[in-house]
Amino acid sequence: MTTKIKFTKMHGAGNDYIYVDTTRYPIAAPEKKAIEWSKFHTGIGSDGLILIGSSDKADFSMRIFNADGSEAMMCGNGSRCVGKYVYEYGLTAKKEITLDTRSGIKVLKLHVEGGKVTAVTVDMGSPLETEAVDFGDQFPFQSTRVSMGNPHLVTFVEDITQINLPEIGPQLENYHLFPDRTNVEFAQIVGKDTIRMRVWERGSGETWACGTGACAAAVAACENGFCNKGDDITVKLKGGDLVINYTDETVYMTGEAERVFEGTVEV
Q1: Which of 75, 215, 222, 227 is catalytic?
Q2: Are 10 and 258 in contact, with CB atoms under 8 Å apart?
Q3: Which residue among 81, 210, 215, 222 is the active-site one?
Q4: pLDDT in tens, 75-92
Q5: Active site annotation includes 215
Q6: Is 81 a catalytic residue?
Q7: Could you read off the pLDDT of 99-145 as tens digits, one per residue?
């Protein structure tokens, strides 16, 4: 006997996931479903699967599974889409909600116009770690390790278009210094308040955007003296722009969230 599960495809700056309300549609073996459904030619097609659920500590919970089935700690773009989902599907009337993630409770402020969520600001919390990384002779650059609840490696270069990300991304993702693997960002400083970035996401490959990666890039830019704390920093990604503000207390991320389509899948 088959069961039909309703899903919604959404994206934040081109970082696209499949969203399921597990209070209505429980998902068994989400790791396998993420692999199966994320395939572009034989599945729905996405960067992964996000499960929205209940929580005894927050308004809602979020679990993220990458396209390879691995579970992520946090997804900035995904959290914005969850905010849009729960508001527009009538699961809440709140414009400020709390979200229980594997990297802690996040606060989402919804920007609503005409009953629709046009943007979401997420309090991402303070970076848990910032540390310089020198690869010696193996890679010809210095990088900054930043933890935003999940691990990131940010490298500043003169021109991100000259980086062969499909080649170097997997090498850095699986480098021996990162036993749990890492997300990889290459960033280019355009000005004191603007960064261009490409991202190789752990478990998904190159994606159009990464919210925690944009936060990590802004943090690293400030720590390295390229940008200023407290200023709005626009991070320009393939899928669109995110605005990051890194203060002494926290990191705020603001961006749009878009609903692409709805559908059902049989399991």
Answers
A1: 75
A2: yes
A3: 210
A4: 999 999 999 999 999 999
A5: no
A6: no
A7: 999 999 999 999 999 999 999 999 999 999 999 999 988 998 999 99
